[in-house]
Known about the structure:
Blueprint: E1 33-40, E2 43-57, E3 60-71, E4 82-90, E5 96-105, E6 108-117, E7 122-127, E8 132-137, E9 143-144, H1 145-151, E10 165-169, E11 172-188, E12 192-203, E13 215-220, E14 227-234, E15 237-247
Parallel strand pairs: 9-10
Antiparallel strand pairs: 1-2, 1-15, 2-3, 3-4, 4-5, 5-6, 6-7, 7-8, 10-11, 11-12, 12-13, 13-14, 14-15
Amino acid sequence: MNLKKVLPLLLACVFPTMARTNDLSDQFIPGEKLEYKIYWMGIPIAWAETTTEKVEEEGRELFHITMTAQTYGAYKHIFEVDDKTEVFIDAATGLPVRHDWIINEGSIHKSHLTTFNHESGVAIFQDRISMDIREVPIEPDTQEIFGFIYSCRNADIEKLTEGKQRLLVTGKMYDLGINITDQDKIKIPELGKIPCYELEPNADFDGIFLRKGKVFFWVSKETPRVITCIKTRVAVGKISAELKSVTSPAPGFWNAESE
């Protein structure tokens, strides 16, 4: 049961072509917290949350996105998860500054740091465990997956199927495409029923964002878009992730339909 292939999808967004604006605070919302519960075969085995804050580093304003995921104590003896991802985004451009990914899941341990230098046209990828360090050529607007989907949360979702996005993932460039497969309503305990798109992402990479095989997730129609549910299969059964609560300083975050 490898949760690293599912949990990163819990970031709250969607993936159309990103539009640059001078103010990105309606996409990266400081003070926002999204809480999820992870189920295996209907049993709640883990939790995850993402938070966003604004920080200053060397005179530059950055958005700091943090995602953590952990197994509930009662299930640690079966399969322990202790993951943390941190992404720092330039608040002026929406481009990544660095991406820090730490995975501890059972016998699997990974620790990757990617530092972006868009002016020089390179990113430095470091695997802290294998000691692999290498330069990767990047374009002026190259994104990593987590910051990219946050940046695009207010864009037109219908444009998703028009092409593929080129992203830097674990030290390599990959293409990401997506299909809109259905529309539905997802019930969130604190917010009621949320109209959502059902989406199926397609990509060549595995582990950090997708698993091999079918993955479906639901994204709120109303902006700012948030992933509300994920469903997939692993070798030992089904895994689902469900949004449980949203804490946001943004007024009128959603207009949820009551029962």
